[in-house]
Every structure is written in C-alpha cells, then in structure tokens.
Amino acid sequence: MVRVLPSVRNTTLGFIVCLTLLPTLAAEHVQLLDYRLNEQILQVPAGKGGRVRLQTTVFRPDGPGPFPLVIINHGKDAGAPSRQARDRFIYMATAFVKRGYAVMVPMRRGFAGSSGRYVEYGCNMTANGLGQASDVRDALDFARKLPFVDSERIVVAGQSYGGLATIAMGSQNVPGVRGLINFAGGLRDNTNRCDWRSELVRAMATYGGTNTLPSLWMYGENDSLFNPELVGRMHDAYVRAGGEAKLVEYGAFRRDAHGLIGSRDGEKIWWGETEQFLKRIGMPTTELYAVAPAPSIPKSDFAPIEDVDAVPFLREAGKLAYREYLSKLSPRAFAVSANGAWCWAEDGEDPDVRALATCEAKGGQRCRLYSVDSNVVWRDDEPRKQSTMTLAASDAAAAPAVKGGSATVGGSTSDGK
Predict the structure, then answer these.
(1) Helices 161-169 and 196-208 meet at what angle, rounded to 10?
(2) Residue 248 CB coordination number (10 Å)
(3) What residues pair up with 17 in beta bridges, in sequence order?
(4) In the chain, ranges of CATH 3.40.50.1820 domains
(5) What's the chain look like in SS3?
(6) Architecture of domain 35-280 in CATH?
(7) What is the pLDDT of residues 144-163, one digit of tens each?
(8) pTM above the 0.85 mark?
(9) Which tens digits make up the pLDDT trace of 267-307?
(10) For the chain, N or C: smaller number of CB within 10 Å?
C-alpha cells in the first residue's frame, strides 16, 4: 500500500484511500448544490477590467434580505490549482445561514472553475498574501452591490492560505467590513529554498502596520503546518506593528487541527470564540432560521458493520482495507465495486460522495456505498458473485498500478498552502 502523507489546507480536511485499477483516471469534481441553504454558483468579475471570472458559491436564508455577509476564503491543494475542487465550507456555511447570514466562498483566480492564472511569489510571503487578497477584494466589491447583501455588515474569514489572504486584505481600506477571522492562516514553502517561517512573521508585521480592523485568530495545538511557536511569533509581530488581534490557541483537534472548519465537529471549537467576536463588532449571533438535517442513507440489516467477510466483492487486500476503515473517524464512508475496486473516505465534507466518485474514477465502473459512519447501508439487491474471468481481469489491471494495489489520494490534501 502506497501512502502519500497529507499536508492539509482546508475545507475539508479528509482522507481517501482506494484500490487503484485504472491509475490514469482522476476523480471528477462533483458539483453539489444544497437546496436547504439556497446554494448557487456565481461567476464574479475580477482583475483588470473584470476579465477574470471567480467561481463563487453563495448560500443564504430564504427571503430577499438584505442579509449580513460572511466571505470565507479557501486554502490551496497539492498540485495544479485548476484541479482543485470547489470549496463550500458547508458546516460553517450552515452555522452562519442559521443566524441569518449570506455566505460567499470565492475560488480565487486559477483555482477550480475560476478563470485566470494562479500566480505565486515564491518566498515573498507578503506579496503572496496581497496577491490573493486582490481577488478577495474584488469579490467583496461585487458582493456589496448584491440586493440581498447588507453592504455595511460584512465579516471576512479564511483558512490556511485563505487566512493569510484575509489578513492581507485587511491591511487595505475595505468598506463595509467590520472584522476578520483567521483560521490557521499562513503559507508553507515545501522546497526549503528559504526560511518561510520568518518570511511569514515578516508578512504579518507588514500587514499589522496598516490594519485597522479587529481580528480573531484561531490555531490548534496539533496543526500540522503552523506549530504554536510559529503562531506566537506571527501574532506578536502583527500586534507589535499595530494590528488588533485576539489569538485563541485551542488544544488538539482530531488528527490535525488545520482542518478544523472543514470538519463536522469543528463548530464545537470555533463557534464560542467566534460568537463573542461577532458580538463585539456588532454582528448578529442569534439563530433565526431552521435548516433541515442533511438527507441520510438508511441503515440496512445486511450485516454487522464489523463483519469483514460480509462485504461484497472484496479480496484479501480489500478486506485489510476495510479493517483499517473500521478504525477511522466519523464521518466516513466505504464504497465497493463489482470488479473488486474499493475506496474509503474519512472526515471532511461529503465522505460518501468522495468515496463513490473516487472509487468509480479509479475502478472504471459503478460503485456502491457499503458503509456510512457506523452503519451498513448495503442492500443485497444486485449480484454479489463475479465470474473467475472478471476477477482475474481486475487483478491484472491492479497489478501494475502500485505495490499492494492501492494508493492514497486526498479529498483535501495539499502542499500546505
């Protein structure tokens, strides 16, 4: 089994492990629209002359508004930004919609479905933050003109690279914005070509020198990218330069605190401090709208979840993977295909969707969910057995892929940016 250890960025800290039958295929980005939150996708003009279009997800309560607005800024996955999935921050978006907010999640230029080219400034962390902040500012200016947005009650938040962009944008004159929230903000350089930690500290000092907006910073003890010592240096530099920031250092969160706001359990950690911050800057915090629970797949009586031998189509490698899956954190999902392909996804957003999509892309044919969280959801309404020829063919396809026939890919892995 080949594992790529994830360095994490956002939304959506999660893991996906699959049997790879067709290694040349990649999982397609699945476009989800949540009717409970009136989710829609806009193309927001940005850049010189508005020629760039930013793929922007919008959530909002029922009714015409105007609603206070929170803009949530994303991090960066490993690999080409254009292959990054559209970020939704569905758990955080739900918490804010319940409290009467509209929510916007703009994908910056070159990311996901946005046009334009992603530009990085190497070890110049100050320039990196300001470059990303340009798109955030364009999205903000567009949002203030929308009829359902209260243009004078806006909060800007961001995670990882998006947190850096948020603090960078706050160093400029930003009308309508009352405060900034930085969740595990920063940027890591994996090339070891520079002292990127000191460059981050220098960037925060630069931003703090001109920032007049109050900010809340939240970092966890077991953040895989930014340890408490570095976080303290960044915060001290920002405050000494004149910036206003309350630093909240909470303890360890699940396997990696860097994925806090992309986790279903994250709200238990971040909402209390966020609520106090919002009250201080005159933003609403009372729940005003009910949001129906997300649809769930009914539990079946097919087999006990711990019965490894009951899982259809699995050979020995797949059974070992299922045993490993049983030790994973919830939310989680395990998918399987009739040709012996399998995939499990853990934590983050929509693990069932991620497991299915990646299983089908890697396995080359339809997959079905066997387990979601602690429930078996499989219903034995399709043939479980395959011919010897089919199994032999799938084994042959798996052999050249990687040793052990499986590879780790990430629903939210990254290069730490």
Answers:
(1) 30
(2) 16
(3) 344, 408
(4) 35-280
(5) CECCCCEECCCCCCEEEEECCCCCCCCCCCCCCCHHHCCEEEEEEECHHHCEEEEEEEECCCCCCCEEEEEEECCCCCCCHHHCCCCCCHHHHHHHHHCCCEEEEECCCCCCCCCCCCCCCCCCHHHHHHHHHHHHHHHHHHHCCCCCEEEEEEEEEEECHHHHHHHHHCCCCCCCEEEEEEECCCCCCCCCCCCHHHHHHHHHHHHHCCCCCEEEEEEECCCCCCCHHHHHHHHHHHHHCCCEEEEEEECCCCCCHHHHHHCCCCHHHHHHHHHHHHHHCCCCCCCCCCCCCCCCCCCCCCCCCCCHHHCCCCCHHHHHHHHHHCCCCCCEEEEEECCCCEEEEECCCCHHHHHHHHHHHHHCCCEEEEEECCEECCCCCCCCCCCHHHHHHHHHHHCCCCHHHEEEECCCEECCC
(6) 3-Layer(aba) Sandwich (3.40)
(7) 999 999 999 999 999 999 99
(8) no
(9) 999 999 999 999 999 999 999 999 998 888 999 989 999 99
(10) N
Residue 132 token pair? 């990303």
